[in-house]
Amino acid sequence: MKYRSTAGNLLCVAFVVLFVAIRTASTASGAVISMYVLTDKTNYFAGELVEWSIVFDIENSTALDNFGIATISANLSDSVGETLTAGTVNVTNSPSFVTFDITSGGSWDAPTNTLYEISALDFQQDPATIGAHGSSLTNILLARGSYVATRGGTHILSVTPGSTNTHFTAAGQDFFAATSYTAINLSNATLNVTAVPEPSSIALMSLGCAFLCRSVIRRRKGQI
What we know:
Layout: H1 2-27, E1 32-39, E2 43-45, E3 49-59, E4 69-78, E5 88-89, E6 102-109, E7 114-121, E8 137-148, E9 153-161, E10 166-167, E11 179-180, E12 183-187, E13 189-194, H2 199-223
Parallel strand pairs: 1-12, 2-13
Antiparallel strand pairs: 1-3, 3-8, 4-7, 4-9, 4-10, 5-8, 6-7, 9-13, 10-11
């Protein structure tokens, strides 16, 4: 009886260790997500429209730890405090197996000068495409938008992670079975805005130039 009891205990321990190992392997994630802010150009005049976009890459994923995007979200801010309007989330994606079911262009928060929770949710991915994407996805558009540059100087458009950035795992396609990405890399955009002189300033400069030219002409006449 003692031998059977010991053997039974060892069997139970082995089963628990195996279960934990399988569970850990199924939910462990090596997938890394990178977010980038892009602008249509780098030099602007005050009053021009700045067109921005947020794209992302997913790398180091496997069929076990990346069954598709569950949630992806980002915050966007301008370093000099420009007011940003909500963007448009890219619903029609390429490749075809990335489908955003619920989207938000973000909510502007004036006290922090931040456009919060530009996000998309994908509650379920087509089982036929599980693992079909290989180990990486690159240059996937999350959202795009625009705002009017009103302040001169160097601007930095900064992206930060939103509240949730998760992917489906081998544990299942249930949204609540999703796990966080191992790491999130961020890349900002730098742009330069040249202030345009006010009409009153232009008029004053013109008046000054006219006065200077008149003085030069009079001086030349006096020398003849």
